[in-house]
Every structure is written in structure tokens, then in C-alpha cells.
Amino acid sequence: MTRRYAAHAGVSAELGPDGRTRLTRLRSDGPLALRETPDALYLVGAAAGPLGGDELTLDLEVGPGARLAVRSAASTLALPGAGESRLTVRAWVGAGGCLDFAPEPTVAAAGSRHRALAGIDLAEGAALRWREELILGRHGEQPGRHTGRLDVTVGGVPLLRHELCLDEEAAVRSGAVLGGATAVGSVLLAGPGLPVPRAHAGDGLAVLPLAGPGVLVTALAADSATLRRRLDEGEALARQAETGSAAGAGAVSSR
Amino acid sequence: MDAGLLLLADSRLPAGAHAHSGGLEPAASAGAVTDVAGLTGFLRGRLATTGLVTAALAAAACAGGSGGWVRLDREADARTPSPAQRQASRAQGRSLLRAVRTAWPNAGLEALSAVAEAGPHHPIVLGATTAVAGGGPGEAAAIAAYGAVTGPASAAVRLLGLDPLAVHRALAGLAPHIDAVAVRAAGYATGDPADLPAASAPLLDLYAELHLHADLRLFES
């Protein structure tokens, strides 16, 4: 018999009268433990997992003009259990606010069934940096089932709806989807003051200017270190075109 | 089967589909597809991602009527991060619109030209036309899913010199998967457009951009 968590954590960041952001709400719950540090809010794994059956929700509210950076202390290891595990991250960013979400990778361990959903509503004039990295199994093992979906709207208009599903191996392993890659990831930069960068494609890396105000960097690799290096390279390329922009995602720290 | 819908699904419809390989040409150039087995995998991958997404958009455009086309066109943009693929989808949408306005003259289709300045995305035109030609969301999804696979397959015959009989044996083997994707896609036709599938194919995105800058190419995409 395995334990199951139904946890709901949340944080609210607001701009104070002194021009600094303060956390007006910080609620940890179960495995979703949150720790405030001077440089970022950290997700600290307070339990193994997620395990099959876990239902985890994290709410991130960033008020107008406020800034919030979210990191994690370690990778997330999705493990088998009683059914499917689910992590839902919901975020709201007000005008002039900025959310920089870049946790460590998620590893889809053999036999796991995990669903990672992220829904982000940006107000007009809000900025976002959102990084996701997925490792297909621990060393030498077949990955579990994984579905990741990212939905981002700006002022109610869809900017990006992006899903990656590992359920159908013949499709995933094909020369159209992931090929032989065992690590896949993306960084979305969105917000005002982003001049349209040029599209770029190279070795396992693509920099894709979106139809709306944003750029998606996607990368594929054989290991997590190479994946991170490619995403960093892609992000640098995406930011090159931003030189001279005073505000927006260009001002978000890349670390 | 309705002959009008067969015409819409036919690659001989003069709608410019022959100019696009659905990412097969850059995949072949990169050495990712070299034989029938590699092609079969590529088609499975394309069907499960772009195929599902475009089939669902076509089904929704067919079911919803002209009032929903602008929203669906934006939803198509949000599901197509690659600028080269957005461009290819709108180019094919424009070509298809030109063909169907002549073949199926209907006042209901006129609103399509106002959907976006660069022309509507291909599945929006396909779904709208399917309705005019007497089909429903299921047929719109089936035609879209079928085209997502047959286009690159015939491009592979031309590019890699593959045996057309062997390629068609592979296509026949994929038929149940095409049907399954179409049924799944049609299931989203009347729901919230935000919930439409958004399956991505990172390699197809990468190849689409590489292809745009390739020196020598036979297909536009």
C-alpha cells in the first residue's frame, strides 16, 4: 500500500510601497515545501515523488510590478504508485510583474505515470521566463509515461499551448518527435519589450519566435547537462535580439 | 462515401499540397529518415502530434461555424511555435481557400479571407470547407489526419526513391491509427477551443527552421 498526497501550496508576491517585492502568502503543503531565500523562492522536496496517485497543486500569484523567481533544491523524480500522479502549477502575473520559474529537471522513472500541467495567465505588460526540463528515465532505464502541458495566455489571448506526451513509444522515438534523445526541454520568454528575435536552428536546439509576444527555446539532448547547455545557449541567442530593451523578460536574471 | 469529400481529400485537388513535404525533406536531409521503416516511424510521430492537432482544429472549424474561426486561428498559432511552420500552414490555407472558393462557391466561406491578413491556417479552411461540402467534424478530422500522413509519404517516394508499393503497404498499416486519431480529434470539436490537443514534435519544429535556410530544397516545407 502506498501513501497518497493531495497537497495544495501557494505563494503570493506583491510590490510593497518601498518598491520591493514581499511574499504576502507562503503556504507549504505536504511534499510541496516552499522556502524563501534572498535570491529566489525554493521548492524543497519534503517527500519522495511524486508517486502515482499524488495530486499536487501549486498556485503562484505575482501582483502588478512584483517579481518572483522560483527554483528547486533538487530534481523531481516521478515514481510509480497507485495510478497517475499529477502536478498542476497555476500562475497569474499582473501588469509590470515578472515571474521567473526554473526548477531542476523532472525525471520520468520507469513505470511512472505522471502528468505535469501548467497554466499561466499574464496580464498585458507582464513578463515571464518559464523553463521545463524532462529526463526520460534514470540512467539506462526505459522512461515511464509522462504528459506535460503548458498553456500561456496574455490578456486572455493564447500565446502558447505546448504539450509533450511520452505515451506512444513508436511516435515518441520517431524521427519526427524526439528521435534518440533522452532529455528534452524548453524555455519560454514572454512579455513586453521583446523585439522579435530571428529564428535559429542548430544541433538539438531551436529558437522559435512565437506569433504573440514571446520566444520559445526548445532543445533535445542525450543527457541533462547537454540539455541545460543548449537551453542556455538558446536563451542567450533569444536575448541577443533584446539588446537595448529596457524592460520585460529581457530584464529577468538568467540564473 | 460522399464524392465531394473524396475530392477535398484528394492530393490532386489543386491546392498546392504537392509543394510541401510536412518536414520530411529536412528530416531526410538530416539522415533521420532513410528507408521505409524510418518513414513509417516518422509518419506515426507526425500523426500523433501535428496530425492530431490539425485534425482537432479542422473538426472544430467544421462544427463551430464562421463565428469561431478567428479564435481557432489564434489557437492554431499558439500550437505552432515554429515560424516556418506557421508560414507553411498559412500558405497552404491560402492555396486551399483559392481552390475551394472556385470548386464550392458558397457565401459562407467568404468570412475565411478575413480571418487573418496572411491567410487562415490550413485546418481552419479545411474544416470550414468540409461543412460546405456536406461533411461533419468526423470527416474534417479524418481528411486532416489522412493528409498529415499521405503528404509526407508521397514526398518520401520522390526524395528518397522509395518503392511506392512498400510505402503504400506502410500507409495501409497506418490506416487504423489514422482512424483512431480522427475519432479522438473529432471528440474535441464542440468543446472549449482552449482544451484542443497541443501535442508538440520538437524535431519537426527544428527541421522546419533548418529547412527554411537550406541551400537546396525541392519542397517549400
TrEMBL record, chain A:
Q: Which UniProt keywords apply?
A: Chaperone, Cytoplasm, Nickel insertion
Spell out the subcellular localization from the entry: Cytoplasm
User: GO terms for CC?
Assistant: cytoplasm
Q: Which GO terms describe its molecular function?
A: nickel cation binding
The record's section on Pfam families has:
UreD
Q: How does it assemble?
A: UreD, UreF and UreG form a complex that acts as a GTP-hydrolysis-dependent molecular chaperone, activating the urease apoprotein by helping to assemble the nickel containing metallocenter of UreC. The UreE protein probably delivers the nickel.
Q: What does this protein do?
A: Required for maturation of urease via the functional incorporation of the urease nickel metallocenter.
Family note:
Belongs to the UreD family.
The protein's name? Urease accessory protein UreD
Phylogenetic lineage = Bacteria, Bacillati, Actinomycetota, Actinomycetes, Streptosporangiales
TrEMBL record, chain B:
Among the GO molecular function terms of this UniProt record, one is: nickel cation binding
Q: What domain of life is recorded for the organism?
A: Bacteria
The answer to whether UniProt assigns keyword Methyltransferase to this entry is no
Matching entries from InterPro entries are given as:
UreF (IPR002639), UreF_sf (IPR038277)
For this record, the Gene Ontology CC terms, alphabetical, are: cytoplasm
Subcellular location(s): the record lists: Cytoplasm
One Pfam family here: UreF
- Record's keyword annotation contains Cytoplasm: yes
Write the record's keywords in alphabetical order, separated by commas: Chaperone, Cytoplasm, Nickel insertion
HAMAP family registered for this protein in UniProt: UreF (MF_01385)
Q: What does this protein do?
A: Required for maturation of urease via the functional incorporation of the urease nickel metallocenter.
The record describes its quaternary structure and partners as:
UreD, UreF and UreG form a complex that acts as a GTP-hydrolysis-dependent molecular chaperone, activating the urease apoprotein by helping to assemble the nickel containing metallocenter of UreC. The UreE protein probably delivers the nickel.
Protein family according to the UniProt entry: Belongs to the UreF family.
Indicate what this protein is called per its UniProt record.
Urease accessory protein UreF
Species in which this protein is naturally found:
Thermomonospora echinospora
Q: Which gene encodes it?
A: ureF
